[in-house]
Design goal:
The chain is mostly helical. The chain contains twelve helices and no strands. This is Uncoupling protein 3. Keywords: Membrane, Mitochondrion, Mitochondrion inner membrane, Repeat, Transmembrane, Transmembrane helix, Transport.
Length: 369
């Protein structure tokens, strides 16, 4: 029910947003009639009125849990949120891959007559020439990657950060956060590299009817074929540039998100809700794209290259600079940013809400009532 000036309670709250520790404007009910005092007594700062008046009452989404999320909740929440984000942004990732390999000497010969221009142009060209499902080539491998990859690099970040933080310290330093980001990023790549190789192969393959260069009938067939033709090491092709890339991306995403969110809360610019998560995630996506784009281009080209085209990631990088110039490092930057920026926003917002939802479920299960 709406409260207006005629409401006896209206003058008791001045509309200011307060922290949970700050008392509300209920100094006394003595000025009211005994009957009204009795009816209002449950709505003091200890009751539901507190939730209506304080920032948590205006919060967009679920309120933070009083109990910190467990490692298992973070692990499961991160993987699920990352899959959700991939479903929304996968066409942008596919467009990024196509733009990154464009201009490569031995790129798929069936695509020589196709030239991609810009993010939207790339997606529209793919839909027109390869069908409406083409922007989602490799989605299955992409979801497999996120469940194993994001669960580790995002879900374990806080635990590793606490492990590196000296005992007795109230705050983690930037160095500690960077070290935690690099550690979880490297761990994630080690486990999830085969899924990334298969995802990139599907995204880079061009399907033009009889001239299709697709070698695999499905995701599992891709794992088997790569292992048979290139050896088991083929599934871990490009691990070094991918470790480098994801260490940088993880620092750019997790550390930047961590710091921006912390500062926004410390300076009381936002409360811990959707706007704060959105701004922090957007900033993290931009920083990650800027620092990781050069390594990302080398990683994509090296993982997609046929056997023997490049001797090493360094050879791939040197040939790329010699043939196309240093600007090649930022090929596909716009789709990279659109994809990474939007992916970060969807993932972190979903992740924060999933952590709270899963903790509420866990607390309800453990409650004796």
């Amino acid at each position: 029910m709406a409260r207006g000036p005629s409401d006896p309670c209206c003058h008791l709250w001045d509309g200011a947003l307060r922290s949970p520790k700050e008392p509300l404007c209920f100094p006394t009910l003595a000025g009211l009639s005994p009957g009204l005092q009795s009816s209002l007594s449950p709505w003091t700062s200890a009751g539901p009125w507190r939730d209506w008046a304080e920032p948590s009452g205006t919060m967009v989404g679920l309120k933070p849990s009083e109990v910190p999320p467990t490692t298992a909740v973070k692990f499961l929440g991160a993987g699920t949120a990352a899959c959700f984000a991939d479903l929304f942004t996968f066409p942008l990732d596919t467009a990024k891959v196509r733009l990154q390999i464009q201009g490569e000497n031995q790129a798929a010969h069936v695509a020589q007559s196709i030239h991609y221009r810009g993010v939207l142009g790339t997606i529209l060209t793919m839909v027109r020439t390869e069908g409406p499902r083409s922007p989602y080539n490799g989605l299955v491998a992409g979801l497999q990657r996120q469940m194993s990859f994001a669960s580790i690099r995002i879900g374990l970040y806080d635990s590793v950060k606490q492990f590196y933080t000296p005992k007795g310290s109230d705050h983690s330093s930037i160095t500690t956060r960077i070290l935690a980001g690099c550690t979880t990023g490297a761990m994630a790549v080690t486990c999830a590299q085969p899924t990334d190789v298969v995802k990139v192969r599907f995204q880079a393959s061009v399907q033009l009817g009889a001239r299709s260069d697709r070698k695999y009938s499905g995701t599992m067939d891709a794992y088997r074929t790569i292992a048979r033709e290139e050896g088991v090491r083929g599934l871990w092709k490009g691990t070094l540039p991918n470790v480098t890339r994801n260490a940088i991306v993880n620092c750019g995403e997790m550390v930047t998100y961590d710091i921006i969110k912390e500062k926004l809360l410390d300076y009381h610019l936002f409360t811990d809700n959707f706007p704060c998560h959105f701004v922090s995630a957007f900033g993290a996506g931009f920083c990650a794209t800027v620092v990781a784009s050069p390594v990302d281009v080398v990683k994509t080209r090296y993982m997609n290259s046929p056997l023997g085209q490049y001797r090493s990631p360094l050879d791939c990088m040197l040939k790329m600079v010699a043939q196309e110039g240093p600007t090649a490092f930022y090929k596909g930057f716009t789709p990279s940013f659109l994809r990474l920026g939007s992916w970060n926003v969807v993932m972190f917002v979903t992740y924060e809400q999933l952590k709270r939802a899963l903790m509420k479920v866990q607390m309800l299960r453990e409650s004796p009532f």
